[in-house]
Amino acid sequence: MKNWEKDLPSGYREALVIDAKDNKKLVRGMGIAALLLFALFLWIGIATQWSGMKQQAPSTRMASGFFITLMVYIVLHELVHGAAYKLLTGQKLTFGMTLTVAFCGVPEIYVYRKASLIAVLAPFVVFTILSLVLLFAVQDPWVRFYVLLFLGLHIGGCSGDLYNTWMYLTRFKDPRTLTRDTGPMQTFYVPIENET
């Protein structure tokens, strides 16, 4: 089965639109999820690293490096989406950032479920694995604390991607499902015979 269609085939209907830019309810929900995940990992970081952290002063350089890492991460996160989409479709990508979302999309095509799911999950998988490797590779409690904070921000930042994944796993199981991903908005299309 191919990964994408240039035009929406006949026999499909629009089933869902996820708008991470203009849907205020969705934006608030993703923001709350991100904050809760960050708070959880902050608590884990303090609970697991506190005894070592209180024995040495925090480094201003390390804190600055952490914030620079977050800025670079936002770009890399979208580039990983883009790399997956490019490998799977070979089509033109679009990148951008608004006040509510950084994004990568392939707005000129319709992507089948499997390829879309891979592209949506790629940054979550890549950066979760890298964070866990780093977490277990270093012993410095402050570095481990910052890695845990990064992990919380990363997973929280993936809330939109994880929501899309949830939709694929629960609502759009048909491999013929198509998605038009403009970046901040994903529109899901299903074959008409799948009316529910």
Describe the structure.
The chain is α+β, with helices and mostly antiparallel strands. The chain has one domain (4-194). The protein is 58% helix and 18% strand. It has five helices and six strands; from the N terminus they run E-E-H-H-E-E-H-H-H-E-E. It has helices spanning 24-53, 60-89, 113-137, 141-157, 159-170, and strands at 4-5, 12-19, 94-97, 102-112, 178-181, 185-191. Strands 1, 2, 3, 4, 5 and 6 form a six-stranded antiparallel beta sheet that branches. Strand 5 (178-181) and strand 6 (185-191) form a beta hairpin. The model has no long low-confidence stretch (mean pLDDT 93).
The gyration radius over C-alpha positions equals: 19 Å
Following the backbone from N to C, one meets helices and strands in this order, namely EEHHEEHHHEE
Structural class: alpha+beta
Question: Which consecutive residue ranges, at least 5 long each, have pLDDT under 50?
Answer: none
Average pLDDT across residues?
93
Binned, the helix content reads 55-70%
Number of E strands? 6
> What coarse outline follows from CA principal-axis ratios?
elongated
Given the structure, what is the number of helices?
5
Biggest sheet: strands, sense, closure?
6 strands, antiparallel
How much beta, percentage-wise?
15-25%
How many structural domains in the coordinates? Answer: 1
End-to-end distance, in Å? Answer: 24 Å
Keywords:
single chain; 196 residues; alpha+beta; 6-stranded antiparallel beta sheet; 58% helix; 18% strand; elongated
Summed up, what is this model?
This protein has 196 residues and is α+β, with helices and mostly antiparallel strands.
